[in-house]
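Newbie here. two chains, one complex. Structure please?
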Amino acid sequence: MIIFNSEYLKDYTVKIFSAMGCPAGQAKIAADCLNQADLRGVDSHGVARLSGYVRLWQLKRLNASPEMKVIHETPSTAVLDGDLGLGLVTAPHAMKLAIEKARIAGTGWVAVQNSNHYGIAGYHAMMALEHDMIGISMTNASPLVAPTFSKSRFLGTNPIAVAIPALTQPPFVIDMATTTVANGKLEVLQRKGMDAPFGWTQDKDGNPTTDAFSLKKGGSMLPLGGDREHGGHKGYCLGAMVDIFSAVLSGANFGPWVPPFVSFLEPPQNQVGKGIGHFLGAIRIDAFRPALQFKKDMDLWIHTFRNAETSAGPQQVLIPGDPERELCIERQKNGIPLHEQVVADLIELGGIFGIEFIADAETE
Amino acid sequence: MIIFNSEYLKDYTVKIFSAMGCPAGQAKIAADCLNQADLRGVDSHGVARLSGYVRLWQLKRLNASPEMKVIHETPSTAVLDGDLGLGLVTAPHAMKLAIEKARIAGTGWVAVQNSNHYGIAGYHAMMALEHDMIGISMTNASPLVAPTFSKSRFLGTNPIAVAIPALTQPPFVIDMATTTVANGKLEVLQRKGMDAPFGWTQDKDGNPTTDAFSLKKGGSMLPLGGDREHGGHKGYCLGAMVDIFSAVLSGANFGPWVPPFVSFLEPPQNQVGKGIGHFLGAIRIDAFRPALQFKKDMDLWIHTFRNAETSAGPQQVLIPGDPERELCIERQKNGIPLHEQVVADLIELGGIFGIEFIADAETE
């Protein structure tokens, strides 16, 4: 691992997106979204993914300077056509619109069609916090997950994020894939040559497996819960709901038709919609209760749960968002560790645009 | 088991609620909600629960003729004070309000405080379907579930329901507890003297257990996913979100302060809100896309997933709502089976009000 200063990585990302043709404001917000993923420990969705976006742009599957357009709206809803832009750009744009609508109507809900991968779901949801609003964010994604009783890869890891403000306590932030684990955790086991627990994946015939490489052998990820006996059908329900909200409400591709993020896979034939889809929501707290009362109650909620009696083992009870926030503080101070492979990829990427990536930072 | 005609049970339920003092319209909708639970196979939330509501009413913990009041609203939101009424009454009332708001504002979101147990979550969500709307329903509940890494019972089974209309296909209906399993499934194992799979519950010290009676020995249910390794922290996130939406947004009791449904347990001291809380939502489809287009895409979604390739084993891939709908058709035709104990309880209940329950139907 090589450690990099967070600001250095962000500046480099802005340069790459700008070189690709992103308008300045869009390059900045897209870079911030990747940077927050690195700071919060979602390494798979940070700067490591930068070259993936560039490759999609090279294939013209991604538009660096989209003209985003609201194609339908009501007082509390809108559909945004993302013009095949970066999801890192279309989703924050949609979230801003949701926040504006919530200011007037109490809540705002924006479905996005014709978009691309939007980074970490939590980034967009957290935009609502400073407005004393609850933020909600979901997206569909390349199909890797099999519905319960099936071996067809029909759903993405389809994440849900919910960010809720508190008063003196840090905000409550859920950011979770609707699968048992994220793909990144499988990759960690692969590198270590370790087996995966049952319930994470199944093999190509739909049998339970502990093979951490099963996904690369035609297997599929399992919905949260794992098999039917352990509630996997509920994870399937959640992933399906995210797919429908993100894509059937917006007019994007759904289920097996969702275009892959990786550039070496072709998008499926006979598209049923436009690009991939997101669903963003903002709920103004004082559309229900005075924000101060609500946030005091959230403080009590968080304090109570954090002090729940712990079970055997050293682990404290956590509030959603705790681990990411702690890591963020640590990485802002000590830097972001990147794999040698990611570093090589970033250097090569710079070569395309004549931008230098300096990898002489500390090595761990 | 004794088999009863569905209409007979519903009529009896109306009589009991009426005798308790429910206005006619309210008694009817409350009875319909319990009846739908029986028809859809959620036996724990059907007529078997009728005596529980009556016992709460006898203790004055439930108001049979509530004056429900909107205490705050915006174009797309409202907070309803349920006046300690049956959740079976306050939730449908709130859902109607959400539907009215969605007609004008595109979406409608109603948080309910000062309520009681609301039956099956799916009943309320499904009210939106005939209006070409998506219905959403959630509620908090008596604490039985431990947050990840804890042995404190701080959350209820906190269900989420989402009902989405299709065109020629039946609707897509999620109705799920945010725990690995519902309590009713543990009771089935208890009756059969069988062990529970790992991941369903933990013992009073927070250790994994297969003891189906663990909950009765001070243990707790586990959030969807089970332990941390299998994603249980995500189930904890979902249960927490339901608690906050239902109760912190509405001003009801949350977490460990949620009053118990069972009359033999006293509500916790120092209440932090009023009664239990619900959160109901309605999303008008054509606030996003023309309803016909959306419903055609839902038909394609459902058709595609139902025909996904099955894994080893005889089980077809299911669409959320399939099992409940099939059972509903069967039970409408062949009747609803009730345990002898439930029947005895219903006869005794009738005695309180001088209403006869006739148990001479077919015995199985």
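Moderator note: Chain A touches chain B through 86 residues (CB under 8 Å). DSSP finds ten helices and twelve strands in chain A. Thread marked as resolved.
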